[in-house]
Amino acid sequence: MTIDGRQRGLPTPPRLDVDLDEADRFFRQRATEDPSAPDPKVRHAAAAREFSERGVFTHTTAELEFGARVAWRNANRCIGRLYWRSLVIRDRRHVRRADSIAHECVEHLKLATNGGKIRPVITIFAADEPGRPAPRIRNEQLVRYAGRRQDGATVGDPRFEAFTRWVQSLGWSGKGSAFDVLPLVIDTASDGTAIFDIPEDAVLEVELSHPELPWFADLGLRWHAVPAISSMPLRIGGLTYPTAPFNGWYMGTEIGSRNLVDADRYDMLVRVGRQLGLNTDDERSLWKDRVLVEINRAVLWSFDRAGVKIADHHAESERFMAFVAKEHKAGRTPTAEWSWVVPPMSGASLPVYHQYYDESVHLPGFLPSVQWEP
Amino acid sequence: MTIDGRQRGLPTPPRLDVDLDEADRFFRQRATEDPSAPDPKVRHAAAAREFSERGVFTHTTAELEFGARVAWRNANRCIGRLYWRSLVIRDRRHVRRADSIAHECVEHLKLATNGGKIRPVITIFAADEPGRPAPRIRNEQLVRYAGRRQDGATVGDPRFEAFTRWVQSLGWSGKGSAFDVLPLVIDTASDGTAIFDIPEDAVLEVELSHPELPWFADLGLRWHAVPAISSMPLRIGGLTYPTAPFNGWYMGTEIGSRNLVDADRYDMLVRVGRQLGLNTDDERSLWKDRVLVEINRAVLWSFDRAGVKIADHHAESERFMAFVAKEHKAGRTPTAEWSWVVPPMSGASLPVYHQYYDESVHLPGFLPSVQWEP
Ligand code: HEM
Ligand code: HEM
């Protein structure tokens, strides 16, 4: 896997300990933003009481909702934050069996997919408790494609080759196509590591074609509709929820400028360039830049035609500017990482490029992805 | 002027004081890199002696050369640093009259232009001394185009409207075209503020046309061959040289993705988009991205055809990676600002994107541009 140069800021180290001071700050923050919140002093006393008995305390569902939405608002790398208030929260802290967790992930995908009118959703499973580790999803996203080395080339997504070998060692096989959806892999204290296929009807996919280039469809490219990150622990008011998959809708460039074109992903630049009749030996002809435009057009056009919600980087940049303005208006300082919110193509043509951002990190928030290891 | 979001790092405040400790570090650094350098202890003693007599000391020409080259090597925002050793240094510390300085700038341009085979050159004028302020060039670059409001629109480069009004108040008029080269404005203690036209034969320009689109030439676009920044003080070993114009060659995107397209510069996106027959009301068609590619192709193609050296962002990114590798090999940690070295288009398709950089700032170096004020 190549390094992603954008991850310059040192990520906050995962905070997994139960922290009553952080809880206190959270209860007070909520009280300033949410009129229905209880008196933070009273609330904190109750949490402290519970903590002294059990070594942990419990968020109310309302706290979970507020916390998850603010975690999104605080996601410095996310350009899509304008609608942070609309996040749907599924409180599944009581679900602990591996098969039930897999079932809830499938339900999450269906609810989020919504026939193409994608909804931002988060499903929150149990917090870590002393002596009672929470269940964990080992997938980076709920939907990812397998990658297999075959005759010196990779079929599928090279980024998940090692992960694919691992799930194969756990008994999974898949069809062998370039777009085989990987199974969910779930660790629980009671069941160990278990794998679950995601039913086909839970994974909406879009076949890619191009508004003007008929041969584009013959490339056999497709992508799934819902990006649902499942590897980032969620930290709310002094507790960590290690398993809290969340999704938005895609911004086209994620697929068209990264997943399908990065040299260590589907690496389609040369193939599409040749089909376009461009001289792919002459970098100075800007054939790569041209191909990027056409692949991204295909992505947006195909999703639109299939009725699947997707953002383009121009509109999303403008929405992000609206988010920044709204945050200022609410008396808050919006925070962001420039290198992440600036999309991976046509940077300077977008308003997000021409802005400074406060890069400080606030909680509640999503903690850095737990990197998969076998 | 819109903010350029890339300038996130707080710039070092200009260091204008004479600093013997910094000189000491510089003499020692030079001794480790340059076998011909004198013993740094002996050299420092001599500088200290001179300082105790005059309140300042003098670099040797060899020190100036080493210092200027290392300043380029340390330019964190510059993608073009692979050839830092090749910088040609013109030592003009003795030149103090305004007209002579203007003359030297013109000579700089001619030497740098070199009939299109552009050479990286720096001309270093006097350092500030106590009680004897050094001359100053008020232009941001030696070659910039005037901008004038006319009937609610701007003819020329909107970025230099205020500067243009100012030089007009000093007696300059210009032809009134969209590409009128501004005069040099030079401040000296003896002559005050004086303006000097740059002779036409010192400013090589390239008329822009497109390899496939004949109408492109009719847009009447052109750009000058040599980007020569004249607003950044040069700090070498304890002394500041406020007037030290330097140039490289252009990277195409500077012209094709910024100067000609930024909304507060020549703002050509919509015009070219309409000519291309694209629907400029539909952002989602990625017409802007498409237009960017075509303008950048025109820039590279026209410079190539005119025999004027220009880099494309793909090759320049690869050269920058070679620079990074070479620095490591030399036992140094290369430093860079990610948001500056990643070009303003097709970011993720370039190797520079997929790297972390140490952002620390080292001397010798160029200090932040002195912003022009009337
Ligand atoms: C609603 C539509 C959404 C859009 C268009 C959007 C867009 C994006 C994009 C383009 C990125 C950068 C991804 C990359 O380059 O790898 C990103 C990152 C991120 N987004 Fe969003 N997002 C959306 C919803 C959400 C939601 C609902 C959440 C959480 C509740 C969220 C949290 C994050 C986080 C934590 C990251 C950083 C991921 C990482 O570090 O790898 N986003 N988003
Ligand atoms: C030889 C070819 C060169 C190329 C292709 C090149 C390329 C670039 C580019 C693309 C930028 C960013 C400009 C912007 O986006 O505004 C830059 C910035 C810079 N370059 Fe270079 N450069 C070259 C030579 C030089 C030389 C000779 C020096 C000094 C001796 C230099 C020092 C700098 C500095 C100080 C900056 C930052 C400017 C600022 O802060 O506005 N470069 N260079």
Automatic annotation (TrEMBL), chains A, B:
Question: What catalytic activity is recorded?
Answer: 3 reduced [flavodoxin] + 2 L-arginine + 4 O2 = 3 oxidized [flavodoxin] + 2 L-citrulline + 2 nitric oxide + 4 H2O + 5 H(+)
Anything further noted? This protein is similar to the oxygenase domain of eukaryotic nitric oxide synthases but lacks the reductase domain which, in eukaryotes, is responsible for transfer of electrons to the ferric heme during nitric oxide synthesis.
Matches recorded under InterPro entries? Nitric_oxide_synthase_Oase-su, NOS, NOS_dom_1, NOS_dom_2, NOS_dom_3, NOS_N, NOS_N_sf
Q: Which cofactor does it need?
A: heme
Q: Name one GO biological process term.
A: nitric oxide biosynthetic process
**In its UniProt entry, what is this protein called?**
Nitric oxide synthase oxygenase
Concerning SUPFAM superfamilies, the annotation shows: Nitric oxide (NO) synthase oxygenase domain (SSF56512)
**Entry-linked Gene3D superfamilies:** Nitric Oxide Synthase, Chain A, domain 1, Nitric Oxide Synthase, Chain A, domain 3, Nitric Oxide Synthase,Heme Domain,Chain A domain 2
Which ranges carry the Nitric oxide synthase (NOS) domain?
77-84
Q: What class of enzyme is it?
A: oxidoreductase
Q: Which GO terms describe its molecular function?
A: heme binding; metal ion binding; nitric-oxide synthase activity
Instruction: Explain the purpose of this protein.
Output: Catalyzes the production of nitric oxide.
> Source species, please?
Phytoactinopolyspora halotolerans
